[in-house]
Design brief:
The complex is a heterodimer of chains A (about 220) and B (about 350).
Chain A: H1 3-17, H2 22-34, H3 39-58, H4 64-88, E1 94-100, H5 108-119, E2 122-126, H6 133-143, E3 147-151, H7 159-170, E4 178-182, H8 188-194, E5 198-200, H9 203-214
Parallel strand pairs in A: 1-2, 1-3, 3-4, 4-5
Chain B: H1 3-10, H2 28-45, E1 49-53, E2 63-64, E3 70-71, E4 76-81, E5 86-92, H3 97-101, H4 115-124, E6 129-135, H5 137-144, H6 147-156, H7 158-182, E7 186-190, E8 194-195, E9 198-199, H8 203-223, E10 227-232, H9 240-244, E11 249-252, H10 261-268, E12 273-278, H11 280-285, H12 288-302, E13 308-312, H13 322-335
Parallel strand pairs in B: 1-6, 6-7, 7-10, 10-11, 11-12, 12-13
Antiparallel strand pairs in B: 2-3, 3-4, 4-5, 8-9
Helix pairs in contact in B: 2-4, 5-6, 5-7, 6-7, 7-8, 12-13
Classes of the chains: A alpha/beta (about 220), B alpha/beta (about 350).
Chain lengths: ~220, ~350
């Protein structure tokens, strides 16, 4: 990349890390495209910056609201790039069905993970909150995803994750799909107990686990 | 306690739905039944304190959407969780800040807000302490707009968000005056400031907006003779020093977020009332023996010298094992006698 293009990418990274105004960020993205930067390069810069933001959040340098805004900014950048990405045929890494389980309406973590996965090149179908096992199964049969991700924030609702996995087995779908569970009360022991392939206690860890299970290396 | 927990404790069915975040019962007879059930359960468990929230003001009626969701006093759209028999925040009527500017906030001086508190006081007299539960303005706005919209507007329209929190603070100030006349012994302000990693928003926002508004509420409560306790889940350590300079006490001291009640006691035991901190996650998943040990440990760290109210780190809900919850209280009765000998 030429020096001026490097400067544009450096500026983009700086603005994202500052959680700058979305309009200013979009201006830099357009500037980058007009100066000939491949939209995939812009996505790569975005994703590397999101990884850095994720690490800062894990270290306590950034707060939940900043993580949420970073996810929002990522969505806006991807929306700006969409027409250009279609032309370049960006590779998609897989399709994921995502939902908060039945009885639970919490979705902050889920929404952050989805925004980060979409910017990383995953196709994510968000079923929303209070999702029944039947609705998860219907989506899996129709969409044939690589992975099912379930979120729960309450100890009273996390047991529903086991129910969903049991219904997957009953429908001979368990071996056809990876299952990742997440949310504050989720532990390694619980994930093993119910037969999930992976787990995470927060959004940043969830993105790492999902990428690892699909076979994508970070950094 | 949620409704299923109270039904399990009392052996009675409560045939109505409630909300733990917003007053929704308009019929005063049903509101009395709700309070009667709460008091019955709290007495059965042998608690020293009854916690009661606000009632809906007399003028208000809930609006039910065609999809069965309910719009509460604050413009939150609530969805019915049939298992818990509770209406829970799901969405919002506010699509942009202009929607809020055109919204009529509830009138704090309308009659009816303290109905539940006054009725509770009549029933319990001086047998138990009476705590009035209100909602923190930041947490209220966070839920009212939904977390994502609140966050976007916090960055894009900071003056708007500041104005909203100040309006909600002014509401609380009027309510606190009424709570003091209704006979409450102290106030707990619910709604989280922190999550597992730490504060939910930047410290700068706390210092510029949240803490000044919190101080205004504490000052009026203290002026009226009421102690003011702040509840929050999550890792409070980055804002503990600031909180200690404002409030009279803290609840949760969330062990699942790594908060050590012993360390908080060492630093602020002579200044803060500490309420906590048996983990609700452990109440749901550990054995009775493990809960007894955790409770003893909590008493050992926090009770010597006084200033500690033994409690779980959050509500007793359908997820917690009732056997464990009762074991926590029994252990408190057995080992929580001064001088503490654990």
């Amino acid at each position: 990349m030429s020096k001026s293009k490097d400067k544009i990418m450096e500026k983009l990274k700086e603005l994202i890390l500052e959680i700058a105004n979305v309009e200013d960020i979009n201006k830099i993205v357009i500037e980058g495209l007009e100066s000939g930067i491949d939209p995939i390069e812009i996505i790569n810069t975005l994703n590397k910056t999101l990884e850095e933001i994720g690490k800062k959040y894990e270290n306590g340098e950034l707060f939940l609201a900043e993580l949420m805004m970073a996810g929002y900014i990522a969505t806006q950048i991807v929306n700006t790039l969409k027409p250009y990405l279609v032309k370049t045929k960006m590779k998609t890494f897989g399709k994921i069905i995502f939902g908060t389980v039945k009885g639970d309406i919490h979705d902050i973590g889920k929404n952050i993970v989805i925004m980060m996965l979409q910017s990383a090149g995953f196709e994510v179908i968000d079923l929303g909150v209070d999702v029944s096992a039947e609705k998860f199964i219907e989506a899996i049969i129709n969409e044939k995803p690589n992975m099912l991700c379930m979120s729960a924030l309450l100890t009273s609702t996390m047991e529903e994750m086991k129910n969903v996995i049991d219904v997957l087995k009953e429908n001979n779908l368990r071996n056809k799909i990876k299952v990742v569970i997440g949310g504050r009360p989720i532990t390694k022991d619980f994930a093993i107990e119910i037969g999930a392939d992976g787990y995470a206690g927060d959004a940043v860890k969830a993105v790492k686990v999902i990428k690892e299970l699909i076979g994508i290396k970070e950094g | 306690m949620d409704v299923p927990t109270m039904e399990a404790l009392s052996g009675k069915k409560f045939h109505y739905t409630i909300s733990l975040q917003s007053p929704i019962i308009c019929d005063k007879k049903i509101e009395k039944k709700r309070i009667d059930l709460i008091i019955e359960c709290y007495k059965k468990v042998d608690f020293d304190i009854v916690t009661v929230d606000l009632s809906a003001p007399e003028y208000w009626k809930p609006e039910i959407n065609p999809d069965g969701t309910l719009i509460d006093l604050w413009g939150r759209v609530l969805m019915l969780d049939k298992q818990r028999k509770a209406w829970v925040p799901y969405s919002t009527i506010f699509n942009n800040p202009e929607d809020f500017e055109n919204f009529e906030l509830p009138n704090p001086n309308a009659p009816g807000w303290t109905f539940a508190i006054e009725y509770t006081k009549k029933v319990i007299g001086n047998d138990m302490a009476l705590v009035a539960f209100i909602r923190d303005p930041f947490a209220h706005a966070w839920e009212m707009f939904t977390p994502m919209k609140f966050t976007i507007w916090m960055y894009q329209k900071p003056n708007f968000i500041k104005n909203v929190i100040e309006k909600l603070t002014n509401f609380n100030i009027e309510i606190i005056k009424q709570i003091s006349e209704a006979g409450a012994d102290f106030i707990v302000s619910g709604g989280d400031y922190c999550e597992e990693k730490g504060p939910m928003v930047p410290i700068k926002f706390f210092k510029e907006i949240i803490f000044p508004c919190l101080k205004k509420q504490v000052d009026i409560a203290n002026k009226k003779g009421l102690k003011f306790i702040k509840h929050t889940d999550g890792n409070i350590m980055p804002i503990l020093d600031d909180l200690a300079n404002i409030v009279d006490g803290l609840h949760s001291l969330d062990p699942s977020a790594g908060v050590d009640i012993g360390k908080v006691k060492e630093k602020y035991g002579n200044k803060l009332i500490l309420i906590g901190n048996v983990s609700v996650d452990n109440l749901a998943r550990k054995s009775k023996e493990e809960i007894i040990e955790e409770t003893k440990n909590c008493i050992k760290k926090a009770s010597p010298g006084g200033g500690h109210i033994l409690s779980s780190s959050n509500s007793w809900s359908a997820g917690a094992k009732l056997e464990n919850c009762l074991a926590m209280v029994e252990t408190g009765r057995k080992y929580g006698i001064y001088p503490i000998k654990i």
